[in-house]
UniProtKB/TrEMBL annotation:
Membrane-crossing segments per the record: 12-32, 39-58, 670-691
Keyword Transmembrane belongs to the record: yes
PANTHER family given in the database record: BLL2462 PROTEIN
Protein name: Glutamine amidotransferase domain-containing protein
Superkingdom field: Bacteria
Keywords annotated in UniProt: Membrane, Transmembrane, Transmembrane helix
InterPro entries assigned: Class_I_gatase-like
Organism: Mesorhizobium shonense
Length: 695
């Protein structure tokens, strides 16, 4: 029972004082002058005041509240190393059993560091979880917190946390752990394709300086070199970026006997390869309506260095004009097609015909250029079907289709073939989804026979319109119409000429994104996304090898013609290997070189300052590292409820504070001057006063 007194005035306080103060002054004056009946008069005044104040005795029924204790369990990936998971589970079971003996504690168990979001797995953030656990708890009811962790906590404060209760940390792992790790010191985000890229790295060991260690350097899964590194010293590294787009540079060192883990024996850097200026040679056979279409497109690309020649005056033209009056530039054939032909990434012949401008031998040089990895595009016009066609030169060995001599002048809509719907050059062209396509017509097709390679566009009467082929290490494209300029001029609404022409040029120059057969993988958060680009109807499932070496299979579903995708929800951070048929790809899931693995040695240092600031303690769970009662394979301290002013830890025990807070369940009221009792006391006091004054 909790008794207390309360006043519930029958009148407002101002009115009470207006009535009582004059009477009180008169009563005090009577006592001062010792008038007869002044004592009884004063007692009657007190009785009147008490009646107006209406005192009430309150009997409160209260229930004691529990102190809230948070147990934060570190479930981050570094806790999977060695016996840490086993130690954690045994310690948690022991704590639950011991805390269950104390009815005055409300225990909240929180698993931290196991979020599926990649940005929340970059670091072990136990104090954020602790703050969430106490968010709805008044400060006076916080009894304390216990953390089960390896000590690698990345949001630990330098001083006391934001609550006034003891914090205890139970550290998994063992003393004298040994580990080596490697990390990038400098890793540029971008690099030029085919050019050396300067990087630097460092090998770190808990044992300090040691003998040199071999570092294997791999780019996109292929080992390119073995470096010799001095432990603890920054080392320079030079790699060559092979491809445009994303490249994965990986450094790895061998596992050392007795080493804690090899999860941090690898370091990853993602480098986006950027092509240096592409050199394109455009040769226009003669001026025509669409001559500037290719020129304007290539000049609009800042990454392209364009060399353009138009044959305005063929050698056989003889009109008597003196040479010194001609302002034409001589066509530097030897310089372009002999001395510097290897410098060009793409050669385009736009309505070009053999008119003795190029010596016949130079066509052999162009064919050899293609065979060794060059790119050639024939934008054909009526000349390709004539007597002066370049198909009648030694260039024939590089061409994918021979002319029939027929020029079909007939209106048609360029349409995608079945292959064209899957080919990355023509797949999904703007306007191709309808029939007829949502673009303008063309009016001329050059007839060819027995085309090699892949026909991705068809023209009038389903004749080949765009043929793409590989010759040796190089590539050849043939556009069998000179009417593309109609799209550029907006005729009948125009068409996607920029999209089509740019894709053709970049496919010829081996842009990775436009490869017919391509496998890519990427990490989005903690999800591995796989994309298979193929000309087949079903590429089959993808095989995945996780960073820990576990093999898995992912089914690929068709998302659009020529595209199959799949995804895998993962829990491991690291480098994944993906395979499908003869293709392989690498993808890193999760944060690159996450702090979670930058230092995996268990430690007491990070939590020592905040724990001691609250009166708590930091101790290891390994039995050989501390005193205490054994619970399974760990040494757990005893748990003792303590008052707020007492010590909160000892050699073999930890303290959790109890609270004095309680909740009100019921209240009983007993009025002192209520009812007939109060009226009787008041009348008795006034009557005694009158009786005394009347004598």
């Amino acid at each position: 029972m909790n008794w207390s007194i309360s006043f519930e005035p029958l009148v407002s306080w101002p009115l009470f004082w207006v009535a009582i103060v004059p009477l009180l002054l008169l009563a005090l004056a009577g006592l001062w002058f010792r008038q007869r009946g002044s004592v009884l008069r004063f007692i009657a005044l007190l009785a009147l005041g008490a009646a107006l104040l209406n005192p009430v005795f309150l009997d409160e029924e209260r229930e004691a509240l529990k102190s809230v204790v948070a147990v934060i369990v570190d479930r981050s990936q570094s806790q999977d190393i060695g016996d840490r998971t086993k130690q954690t589970d045994e310690a948690l079971a022991g704590l639950q059993e011991r805390l269950g003996r104390f009815k005055q504690f409300d225990v909240r168990m929180v698993d931290a560091g196991k979020s599926e979001a990649a940005d929340e797995r970059t670091e072990t953030r136990l104090f954020g979880a602790l703050e969430s656990a106490f968010r709805d708890v008044p400060p006076s009811r916080i009894g304390g917190a216990i953390m089960i962790t390896d000590g690698e906590v990345h949001d630990a404060p330098t001083g006391a946390p934001d609550f006034n209760a003891p914090l205890h940390a139970l550290i998994t792992g063992n003393d004298h752990e040994k580990d080596r790790r490697i990390r990038f010191e400098n890793a540029p985000r971008f690099g030029l394709v085919g050019k050396p890229l300067d990087m630097s790295y460092r090998v770190i060991s808990t044992e300090g300086q040691g003998s040199p260690v071999d570092v294997r350097v791999s780019v996109n899964g292929e080992q390119v070199s073995v470096e010799h590194a001095t432990i603890g010293q920054p080392m320079k590294l030079e790699v060559t970026i092979p491809n445009a787009g994303r490249n994965i540079v990986q450094l790895s060192i061998d596992h050392e006997p007795g080493e804690l883990t090899d999860a941090n024996n690898r370091a990853i850097a993602l480098v986006d390869g950027i092509r240096d200026h592409l050199r394109v040679l455009l040769v226009s056979g003669e001026p025509h309506a669409g001559e500037r279409t290719w020129r304007n497109l290539l000049k609009s690309d800042a990454s392209v260095d364009l060399v353009h020649f138009t044959i305005l005056r063929p050698p056989e033209k003889q009109d008597g004009t003196p040479i010194n009056e001609l302002s034409l530039i001589a066509f530097p054939t030897r310089e372009l097609f002999v001395e510097k032909i290897k410098d060009f990434d793409l050669i385009i012949f736009d309505r070009y015909q053999h008119r003795d401008v190029l010596p016949i031998l130079y066509y052999d040089y162009i064919s050899e250029y293609v065979e060794k990895g060059g790119a050639l595009l024939i934008a054909a016009g009526p000349e390709y079907a004539g007597e002066s066609s370049i198909a009648r030169t030694p260039l024939i060995s590089a061409l994918p289709a021979m002319p029939t001599g027929e020029v079909v002048d007939k209106a048609f809509y360029p349409r995608l073939t079945d292959l064209g719907q899957r080919h990355p050059v023509t797949r999904g062209l703007d306007g191709s989804a309808t029939d007829p396509p949502h673009w303008s017509r063309w009016f001329r097709t050059i007839g060819v026979k027995n085309p090699e390679g892949e026909v991705v566009l068809k023209g009038a009467d389903d004749r080949p319109l765009l043929v793409l082929d590989r010759k040796g290490e190089g590539r050849v494209g043939m556009l069998l119409s000179d009417q593309g300029w109609l799209w550029a001029r907006g005729f009948e609404g125009g068409g996607p000429h920029v999209q089509l022409y740019r894709r053709i040029a970049h496919w010829l120059m081996k842009e990775p994104e436009l490869e017919e057969e391509r496998l890519t993988a990427d990490g989005r958060g903690m999800v591995l996304e796989i994309r298979r680009q193929t000309m087949s109807d079903d590429p089959g499932p993808a095989q995945v090898i996780t960073p820990s070496g576990k093999a898995m299979t992912v089914k690929l579903q068709k998302s659009e013609p020529g595209i199959f995708t799949g995804s895998l929800q993962t829990t491991e951070i690291g480098l994944y290997q993906v395979g499908n048929g003869d293709l392989t790809a690498l993808a890193h899931v999760g944060p690159i070189n996450a702090p979670e693995f930058s230092d995996v040695i268990s430690t007491e240092d990070r939590l020592k300052a905040p724990a001691e600031a609250t009166g708590g303690s930091v101790r290891r769970l390994a039995p050989s590292s501390m005193l205490g009662n054994l619970s399974g394979g760990v040494a757990l301290p005893s748990i003792v409820p303590v008052r707020s002013s007492g010590a909160a830890s000892g050699d073999d025990w930890i303290g959790l504070r109890t609270t004095n807070d309680s909740s009100l369940k019921a209240v009983s009221r007993v009025p002192l001057f209520g009812g007939f009792l109060g009226l009787g006391l008041l009348l008795l006091a006034i009557g005694s006063m009158w009786y005394r004054e009347g004598r």
